[in-house]
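Hi P.,

Sorry for the delay on this. The queue was packed all week, but I finally got your sequence through. Input first:
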Amino acid sequence: MIGPELVRLDRRWRRAFLEMAAEQQAAGETRYDEALSDFDGHLAVLEAHARGEGLGAGRVPYEVHLLVDEGEVLGVARLRFGLTEELLDEGGNVGYEIRPSRRGQGHGRTLLRLALEVMAERGMWRARVTCDDDNAASAAIIEGARGVLDEVGISTESGKPVRRYWVKTTP
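Then the structure:
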């Protein structure tokens, strides 16, 4: 058994991705509602964003990668290969989440480690990773990846404190 691996989201992962998205929605998380109603349209938008097309102000091209194991999507990572002032404050180079039924099982650590490997392969020596200040699990994952707390600031979106880390992409 190989174990979890990181793959780019594409049509081959439609069924498994939508299963994860439905679980997220049932847990009250709305990030993938668009994908549930129109997967092909959602994927087309993501592909355009990866090429740098149709991005909003303060955004950079990004790729969506899935943490998969034996055909199941365990989590999702958004990899941004640049930063803006907005992303320095919140969002960073790597954004990720684990599906609700798989949280607390170590998959967040695996997902971040593999995401950082992709960033290193793309020539980045460090990555900005942020989390809400009250998200102890995410802070522990980032710190476990040798993340160094840069500062705690206030989110311009939620008004809540946000922890901002720098993480080396290679050991």
